[in-house]
Amino acid sequence: MAKKEEQKRPNIPIKIKYDATSATYANQFILNQNAEEVFVDFSSGPIPDPTTGQTMIPIHSRVALSYQGAKRLGDLLLDAVKNHSQRIKK
Predict the structure, then answer these.
(1) Which pTM value belongs to this model?
(2) Phi, psi of 19 (to 5 degrees)
(3) Cβ-based neighbour number of residue 53 at 10 Å
(4) E strands present in the chain
């Protein structure tokens, strides 16, 4: 019997379907976590509250991830930034 490390997953093609293709810009991120999940809140940046004049960060999106999913996302983002940096150095 093969060890778990040696077993291969079947190569199943996956089709990606986008419900929406518009993007919302985010330049500010707020990270929260609990024992099971990581939450990332996204904002386009600070704005003055029209009522009080106090600076606030309006959150337009929130994503919840397992710690395993957060690690995979972090690794992918790091790779994307490294690849970009290498391309602009050329």
Answers:
(1) 0.72
(2) -75, -30
(3) 7
(4) 28-33, 37-43, 47-48, 55-56, 61-66
What DSSP designation does 52 have?
Answer: T
Tell me the C-alpha distance between 12 and 50, whole Å: 52
Contact 53, 25 (CB under 8 A): no
CA–chain centroid gap for 53, Å, is 31
68 dihedral zone (left: phi>0; alpha: psi -120 to 50; beta): alpha
Q: Tokens 């190569």 — which residue?
A: 11
The two tokens of residue 28 are 């500010």
Q: What is the pLDDT of residues 37-77, one digit of tens each?
A: 999 999 999 999 999 999 999 999 999 999 999 999 999 99
